[in-house]
Design brief:
50% strand; globular
């Protein structure tokens, strides 16, 4: 068999012809009457109302079930094959596909290792940031690579795979509680060789005492993987009476409304960076997060209140805050070395990172549904209603626009080799 702006977590997407294509084997189908669209300069991963997709030049491809590695260059996809499931890999840049591997039963990809080699599959896909699973006592999981099935697990409890450990010997999962009526979850790590599950470590690599594991009830809004692929940051909002592990151990009361859950994929520890009021008070979709290209600072924004916070990823503390003009609606953000780009409604703002103030503001044609930087940094992609446009990051000028029927969001551009 031949690869999370993770956003928690799913990193993704994949064709030819104009409009949205149905995936049949490896060949896309042209929608009758479709109007040719502008060629997109960079391969782009997107969310479509029919699944995940790749925009490559003038090609469009839709795959109902797929997940990609962090750099977006390779994705894993599945499709029913009789009573079984076909699994294959797609090179997003070239469109080449691997031979198919047949898996017994029905499976969909849930998460992929950061290098794209291994994929974890479950019978039903559950977004780790947008939904909760239905009731179940046990969770079947397959781990597959190019040679076939590596691990066949039947995990006790209501489990959703989230990410592989750096050495790929373990799988971070969300364990939903209680299993038959899930309303909260905790992050655990499963040893793939034995199928046993256990708690994470504290930031100082110490064991977490029994009864001190954090249980989260709120919304996992967005996840971002560090450039070195060692750390996964997830933004959580609306955590009523939430207590971190450090609070449970110390006995301090907790009442946190928003924080960034920091998960080290290599050392297997977790730590939460609390966000100050008013983060977490407004709608979850009004929050967004962006990581600087060097991975040194993490920017969190709440457009409803106008609050912005800068987190040092080395110190794992909020270094400074500021207040911008307020907005209404879903928020999207991406950062380069000196600027934060913030989209809300049909407005695109540039925030100067030196002073955390708005340096420029532009309008786009339609409400924004996604925001990503091109891999070379010279284009800023903006998702809109049924279209993706690309802009000069310095001036906001629209450089091109491609019609993408069914577009509901942008994932990421494909990183260069």
């Amino acid at each position: 068999m031949a690869n999370t702006n993770l956003s928690r977590r799913t990193v993704l997407t994949a064709l030819a012809g104009s409009g949205v294509a149905a995936f049949v084997g490896c060949e896309p189908a042209r929608r009758p009457g479709a109007v040719p669209s502008a060629a997109i300069p960079d391969p782009l991963l997107v969310d479509l109302d029919g699944g995940v997709g790749v925009l490559r030049g003038t090609d469009r491809e839709t795959i109902p079930h797929a997940v990609a590695a962090a750099d977006g260059r390779v994705l894993h996809a599945t499709a029913p094959e009789g009573a079984d499931t076909a699994l294959w890999r797609l090179d997003v840049t070239t469109g080449r596909t691997s031979d198919r591997v047949t898996l017994p039963g029905r499976w969909v990809p849930q998460t992929v290792s950061t290098d794209g080699a291994n994929v974890a599959l479950t019978p039903d896909a559950v977004s780790v940031t947008a939904e909760r699973p239905g009731p179940r006592d046990t969770t079947p999981v397959l781990v597959v690579n190019a040679t076939g099935i590596r691990h066949r697990l039947r995990l006790p409890g209501n489990i959703v795979p989230e990410a592989f450990t750096a050495d790929q010997s373990g799988l971070f999962v969300l364990e939903w509680l209680p299993a038959h009526a899930p309303d909260r979850y905790r992050v655990r790590v499963v040893d793939l060789a034995t199928g046993t599950s256990g708690p994470l470590s504290t930031r100082d690599k110490g064991p977490i005492p029994a009864g001190a594991e954090e249980e989260m009830r709120g919304d996992g809004r967005q996840a971002v993987l560090a450039p070195d692929r060692a750390t996964l940051y997830t933004l959580y909002t609306h955590q009523p009476d939430h207590q971190h592990t450090r609070d449970l151990v110390s006995g301090r009361p907790g009442n946190v409304h928003a924080f960034v859950h920091t998960l080290h994929l290599g050392e297997r520890w977790a730590y939460c960076v609390d966000l100050p009021h008013p983060f977490g008070e407004g709608p979850a979709n009004g929050h967004a997060m962006a990581l600087s290209p060097d991975g040194g600072r993490l920017l969190v924004i709440d457009v409803t209140s106008g609050a912005v916070a800068e987190i040092s990823t080395e110190e794992l503390t909020v270094r400074r805050t500021a207040t911008l003009a307020r907005g209404t609606g879903p928020a999207y953000a991406v950062a380069d070395r000196d600027r934060l780009f913030l989209g809300v409604g049909a407005t695109l703002r540039t925030v100067d990172l030196a002073g955390l103030g708005v340096a420029a503001e532009w309008s786009v044609r339609d409400p924004i549904t996604g925001l990503v930087r091109g891999p070379d940094g010279v284009r800023l992609y903006v998702g809109q209603n049924g279209a993706a446009s690309w802009h000069d990051p310095a001036t906001g000028k629209e450089l091109g626009r491609a019609t993408v029927p069914g577009l509901v969001g942008l994932r990421a551009p494909v990183s260069p080799v």
